[in-house]
């Protein structure tokens, strides 16, 4: 091979490598929102999650799942306000692959049908999630229910309304009387909601509010996150006003005494969105609950402490299943 051939080979190889590198750089600088979507797609693929749709009477649910029902109970995971099913990817990473996991987009969020405010109240979301559970036949045997923030509120009310379907449950910083609810009670100005950022600076502020751990996020990614959310901000405002309204605000508190399933509560001690004292309120109503308070952790527990969260959930599921098995043997 001549020197010229070697030079040509390097040029061809360099050009071949340059194309994906340039495409990545262009995406990062010009289309960060597209890069974020690819990122989630890659994570789901790497973790073995598949995306599916469930249709029921003209209403469509979007969800991801991994594994099949087995010896351990299936796990249904409900995300928080303005988030989506991929919120759970960080936790799924640390859960055994043989477990049957289902992560659903909450009503109106991401790939799930967007209708009207009747479906956005806590009670409305509970009805829709039950519709989803029945559609995919998840309730053929009792399952473990996990919910964070708004999803935790929904999960708690769900367990109270459909006790026979739940074998155990985990509530992570379930929402209730948040700082912003108190602010709204004394003000008619509702457009500037800190949980609905419209600029990269506001997005960064939201991360600071929700997370005790400080993440360094590039400006382009912050812009991409804003771009992804911006078309849905009107919807997010509608949902926010529903869940902080009188009908939904105390839904979990009003239903706590009806929960019969073994309950685990996980909360970040430095939560600035929903005060950690909520864990004490739950434990007083349901004294048999297991409460795990995480040091140096804010509201975004699944993002700040994914490994610890997965470990706690799995330990609780195994403990409750072993307890049920022991009860059967002794009876």
Automatic annotation (TrEMBL):
Transmembrane segments: 6-31
Molecular function GO labels: monoacylglycerol lipase activity
Enzyme class: hydrolase
Domain AB hydrolase-1 intervals: 73-306
Membrane topology recorded in Swiss-Prot or TrEMBL: Single-pass type II membrane protein
GO cellular component: a single term: lysosomal membrane
Keywords noted in UniProt: Endosome, Hydrolase, Lipid metabolism, Lysosome, Membrane, Mitochondrion, Signal-anchor, Transmembrane, Transmembrane helix
Catalytically driven reaction(s): Hydrolyzes glycerol monoesters of long-chain fatty acids; 1-dodecanoylglycerol + H2O = dodecanoate + glycerol + H(+)
GO biological process per UniProt: acylglycerol catabolic process
Cellular compartments annotated: Late endosome membrane; Lysosome membrane; Mitochondrion membrane
EC number(s) recorded for this UniProt protein: 3.1.1.23
Pfam families reported in the protein's UniProt record: Abhydrolase_1
PANTHER family given in the database record: MONOACYLGLYCEROL LIPASE, MONOACYLGLYCEROL LIPASE ABHD6
Job of this protein: Lipase that preferentially hydrolysis medium-chain saturated monoacylglycerols including 2-arachidonoylglycerol. Through 2-arachidonoylglycerol degradation may regulate endocannabinoid signaling pathways. Also has a lysophosphatidyl lipase activity with a preference for lysophosphatidylglycerol among other lysophospholipids. Also able to degrade bis(monoacylglycero)phosphate (BMP) and constitutes the major enzyme for BMP catabolism.
Family to which the UniProt record says this protein belongs: Belongs to the AB hydrolase superfamily.
Protein name as catalogued: acylglycerol lipase
Species this protein is from: Seriola lalandi dorsalis
Lineage of the organism: Eukaryota, Metazoa, Chordata, Craniata, Vertebrata
């Amino acid at each position: 091979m001549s020197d010229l051939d070697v030079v040509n080979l390097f040029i061809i190889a360099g050009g071949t490598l340059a194309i994906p590198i340039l495409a990545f750089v262009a995406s990062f600088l010009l289309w960060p929102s597209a890069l974020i979507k690819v990122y989630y797609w890659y994570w789901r693929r790497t973790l073995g999650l598949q995306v599916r749709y469930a249709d029921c009477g003209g209403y469509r649910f979007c969800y991801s799942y991994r594994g099949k029902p087995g010896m351990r109970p299936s796990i249904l995971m409900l995300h928080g306000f303005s988030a989506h099913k991929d919120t759970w990817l960080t936790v799924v990473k640390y859960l055994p692959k043989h477990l049957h996991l289902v992560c659903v987009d909450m009503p109106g969020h991401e790939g799930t049908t967007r209708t009207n405010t009747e479906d956005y109240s806590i009670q409305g979301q509970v009805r829709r999630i039950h519709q989803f559970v029945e559609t995919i036949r998840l309730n053929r045997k009792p399952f473990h229910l996990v919910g964070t923030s708004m999803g935790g509120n929904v999960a708690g009310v769900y367990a109270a309304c459909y006790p026979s379907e739940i074998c155990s449950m985990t509530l992570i910083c379930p929402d209730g009387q948040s700082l912003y609810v108190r602010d709204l009670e004394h003000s008619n100005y509702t457009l500037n909601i800190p949980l609905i950022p419209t600029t990269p600076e506001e997005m960064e502020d939201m991360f600071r509010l929700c997370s005790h751990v400080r993440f360094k996020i590039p400006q382009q990614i912050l812009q991409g996150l804003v771009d992804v959310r911006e078309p849905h901000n009107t919807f997010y405002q509608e949902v926010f006003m529903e869940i902080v309204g009188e009908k939904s605000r105390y839904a979990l508190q009003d239903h706590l005494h009806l929960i019969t399933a073994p309950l685990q509560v996980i909360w970040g001690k430095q939560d600035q969105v929903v005060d950690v004292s909520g864990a004490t309120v739950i434990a007083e109503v349901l004294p048999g609950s297991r409460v795990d308070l995480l040091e140096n952790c804010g509201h975004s527990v699944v993002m700040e402490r994914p490994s610890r969260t997965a470990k706690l959930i799995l330990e609780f599921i195994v403990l409750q299943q072993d307890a049920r098995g022991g009860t059967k043997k002794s009876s």
